[in-house]
Structures are given as C-alpha cells and as structure tokens.
Design brief:
CATH class: Alpha Beta
Strand order of the largest sheet: 1-2-5-6-7-8-9-10
Structural class: alpha/beta
Strand content: 5-15%
Largest sheet: 8 strands, mixed
Distance between the termini: 64 Å
Number of domains: 1
Radius of gyration: 19 Å
Number of helices: 11
Helix content: 40-55%
CATH topology: TIM Barrel
Number of strands: 10
Order of helices and strands: HEHHEEEHEHEHEHHEHEHEH
Length: 311
C-alpha cells in the first residue's frame, strides 16, 4: 500500500510566511526542538500562524532522540543525550518571544532516566506558568511505563490539558507502537489523570493502519469510559519506506462521520477529525472554543435548574 499514489485530499501547501519564519528562527536561537518539525507534521504553517485563533506550537522536550522505536514515528531512536538543565527556562523564553497564548509541550520517551524525565517535564510547565500567568499549557506526555507517581508529578505542575496518545486500536498496538507501550497502559494513564485531577484529558488515534470500524468505535467507548474529554483522529502517513506501511487512505467523509460519533454519541468535549489532523492540530483554538461552549452549556443548565426550582 505504501507505493500507492496519495489521494487528492492529502495534498498540502508547504508551510511559509513571515510568522512561520520568525517562529523557526526563534526556535533555532534557543536551540529548541518542536515535534511539528521532528515528526514532519503537515500542519506547521496553519498552527503556527494562528490565523483562526491562538497560535499553537508544540515544543519537544528532552532532546530529539527517543528511547523507543515505534514503527509509525519519524523521530530518531537511541543515542539520547543528557538533559539540558537550561531547557525549561529556554522554552519559557521562546514562548514569550513568539507571543503564544496556548503552548503544547511533548517529549521523546526517556526510559533511560530514573524518573523517565517527569521532573524535567514538570519544571518546564512551571517555568512557563510562572512567567506567563494566564497562558494555557497542554502537555502530551509519555506513558511513564504506567507509574502513577510520575504522572502525578505532571498533574502537580498544574497544566490545563494532559494528553496521552493511545495511537491505535487494541489489536494493532504492535506493530504500530513499541512493545513497551500498550493499550491498557495508555488507558490507565488517562484514567489516573481523570480520577486524580480536574485537568482536561486528551488522546489521539491514527487511522489507516489496518484497523476495523468496530475497533475504532470500541476504542472511543473505552476512552470515554476512563473519562477522556477530547479525541483527535488523523490519517497515518508513512514517513519513509522503512516505516509501517499505510493500509488504507480514509476518505474525508468517513473522518466527518467519526467526528459526529465522537461528539454526538460519546459526548467528547470536541473531536478534531480529518486526514491531516494530528494530536496538537489547532489545539489552542479548538480547546478555547470548546471550553467556552461547555461553560456556557453548564451555566444554561444551572439557570434551567434555578427556574425549575422557583416554579
């Protein structure tokens, strides 16, 4: 399937523009990495520009090499460097210089570290929050091998959204993901955040890796069962010939169907669903809009209850 010509709906303009160039230069000046670049995300220009709302850039912490080797991912594996103690402050400086209202932090897996990088992740959140009161911070975290005390370190740093990607349906976890990852382990991380905090939770699914529709449906059900608030669905695209093959190209109408199922049947806060959607796609804009809608609906429900009580 990997040699098959991509359908027309997968064609994208290369990122460009003054805003895009400015952000890229700022990142280089601070010696920072973004998952947008490292994972060859097709939406860099759209997300970084913030044309329709808060601009979103996803900073990748703890280096550009990962301790795991997932077969879908374009990030290099092995040969990890020591952590840069200046990185949390450098990220906070870059956020100020770029002028972001919403920032996404993610990281490579660092199974080689005693705490798998949890303290470094948490320190970066705190640096940003301390310098920029009111900024919204979303973190896309590893599974920390399911160790709850490490997930708690992230919660204690007070981000606004905690995301952890389940990536695919249960049957396809391997060969899609590294064998150290797993469906139940990922669900347990999302479940722990939901049980132990008021932070919004989020996850992402790739389609086109050999899943069946009933498995996607079951995955959405499982995610809501553990309290996940937001889900995104996108098309898997093979980064190189050495990566996992694309099993199918999912039509835009099917992505729209899954969006309706997620939002209307399973009552996710919102679902971004489309061929080019990635986990942090327009994260700031979509989150702010959804939370405002949610708060409005909660207040309307309270008002209805007050009216009913007074009648």
């Amino acid at each position: 399937m990997s040699g098959r010509r991509k359908p027309d709906w997968l064609k994208m303009r290369p990122p460009s523009g003054e805003r895009f160039a400015d952000i890229k230069n700022t990142l280089r000046d601070h010696d920072l990495h973004t998952v947008c670049e490292e994972a060859s995300c097709p939406n860099m220009g759209e997300c970084w520009s913030g044309e329709n709302g808060p601009g979103t850039a996803t900073f990748m912490l703890m280096g550009d090499r990962c301790s795991r080797g997932c077969n879908f991912c374009d990030v290099e594996t092995g040969g990890m460097d020591a952590l840069d103690p200046e990185e949390p402050a450098n990220v906070a400086d870059a956020v100020a210089e770029i002028g972001l209202d919403y920032v996404v932090l993610t990281s490579v897996d660092r199974d080689d570290l005693p705490d798998q990088g949890a303290a470094h992740f948490a320190q970066t959140i705190r640096e940003i929050k301390d310098r920029h009161p009111g900024i919204l911070v979303e973190v896309l975290i590893p599974d920390f091998q399911g160790e709850e005390e490490l997930v708690q370190e992230i919660i204690d740093a007070d981000p606004d959204v905690i995301a952890h990607n389940i990536e695919t349906v249960e049957r396809r976890q391997f060969p899609v993901r590294d064998r150290r990852a797993g469906y139940e382990q990922s669900l347990s991380v999302l479940d722990y955040v939901d049980r132990e905090s008021d932070v919004y939770t989020k996850t992402s699914l790739m389609l086109g890796v050999g899943e069946y529709d009933h498995e996607v449906y079951q995955t959405l059900s499982d995610l809501r069962e553990v309290g996940t608030d937001v889900v995104t669905l996108g098309q898997y695209l093979q980064p190189s010939r050495s990566h996992l093959d694309v099993e199918s190209y999912v039509h835009p109408q099917k992505f729209e169907t899954w969006r309706r199922v997620a939002e209307e049947e399973f009552d996710f806060l919102y679902c971004a669903s489309g061929a080019m959607v990635r986990s942090s796609y327009r994260a700031g804009e979509l989150f702010v809009d959804a939370v405002l809608r949610d708060e409005k609906s909660v207040e309307e429900a309270r008002e209805d209850a007050r009216r009913a009580a007074s009648d």
